Amino acid sequence: MTRRMKRVVVSSGLHEADIRPPALMSEFKRLSIQDAADFFADPASLVEVDCPACDSAEREAVFRKQEFLYNRCEECGSVYVSPRPAEATLAEYYANSRASRFRVEHFSRDTAKARRYHLLRSHANWMGQIVDETGNPDARAYADLSTHSPQIFDEIHALEFFSPLYSVSPLVPVTESEAPVTATTLDALSGIGAVSAFEKIEHQFSPFDFLREASGVLAGGGILFFTTRSVTGFDLQVLWDKTPYIFIPEHINLLSIEGMTRLVERCGLELVELSTPGQLDVELVLHAVRQDPSIKLSAFVDYLLHHRDPLAHADFQEFLQKHRLSSHVRVAARKPKE
């Protein structure tokens, strides 16, 4: 049951370079592509999957990246890689690849201050408000999955709303947070009031299994929060196969808004909020076109980007946010009370 569907507008002055500095992003992408070629070189090890959002088998091939085939689901419009690396191979990649180490040692830490100001504070306030309004008043424990920004706990702790705090299989040591956080595993938890998974869905072998497992530790009325990137967002729709920041294996699931709705329902959860408060779509398209002159834009988009001023761009970005047309998505889903 959908309790509410917000039309969220956010403006914090965020720019792409704040959270994805070009030099760091370039190196992370380079390592990811090289590591993918090493870890996933054997075509026989790849696995065919149906739509990770709605489970439909009906699909059409739409483009290739790094020799991997992206398909578009004919049922919900989600775009996903199939065949894809097996679950065990993906786990080995994230545990041992150079790209994963670079993410922890450089990417997460070097952008920590900007991410805390532009993203984490907003995430914490969002979660606190949702839980306060629709959560279980008797369950106030909070857990973040595969934490790569421990400062989220500092923001959560400052709310004086959630306690105790848990980091499940953290990628960055929780000692980098000043809050009282316990590192743990998912199977050690139960009766949790709120669980978050930031930027995880897009690289899971099975988003369905991932969300089902995560929601399994929630108390009845507990809230599962996640953020991801949607293929139905403006920048991905415009850039499509030319999108420079989509690569394997970081982005094997690019779910549509409709697909995410179906996924939440399949997991037995109640959709509380599905919004797209992204601030970067217009800027991302502008940067991509400047870097790659071969990208062809529609006449309208070309005119908007090159013949209208920053105020028009900001107004258009606000329109994308209001109508769930940005590629940055945040979702809150409630576990039904028994």
Annotate the secondary structure layout.
Elements: H1 16-19, H2 22-39, E1 46-47, E2 59-65, E3 68-73, E4 79-81, E5 84-85, H3 87-96, H4 98-110, H5 112-134, E6 142-145, H6 151-158, E7 165-168, E8 181-184, E9 192-198, H7 207-215, E10 218-229, H8 234-239, E11 253-254, H9 257-266, E12 270-275, H10 281-291, H11 299-307, H12 310-322, E13 328-334
Parallel strand pairs: 6-7, 6-9, 7-8, 9-10
Antiparallel strand pairs: 1-5, 2-3, 3-4, 4-11, 10-13, 12-13
Helix pairs in contact: 2-4, 3-4, 5-6
Rg computed from alpha carbons, rounded to a whole number of angstroms: 19 Å
Count of strand segments:
13
**Helix run count:** 12
The low-confidence parts are: none
**Average of per-residue pLDDT values:** 92
Oligomerization state: single chain
* Side-by-side strand order of the widest sheet: 8-7-6-9-10-13-12
Distance from N terminus to C terminus (CA atoms, Å) equals 15 Å
* The CATH homology group name: Vaccinia Virus protein VP39
Estimate the strand proportion: 15-25%
Helix and strand pattern:
HHEEEEEHHHEHEEEHEHEHEHHHE
Quickly give the CATH architecture.
3-Layer(aba) Sandwich
Largest sheet: 7 strands, mixed
Task: Please identify the top-level CATH class.
Answer: Alpha Beta
Overall 3D shape: globular
What fold name stands as the CATH topology?
Rossmann fold
Helix content: 25-40%
Classification by helices and strands: alpha/beta
Number of domains: 1
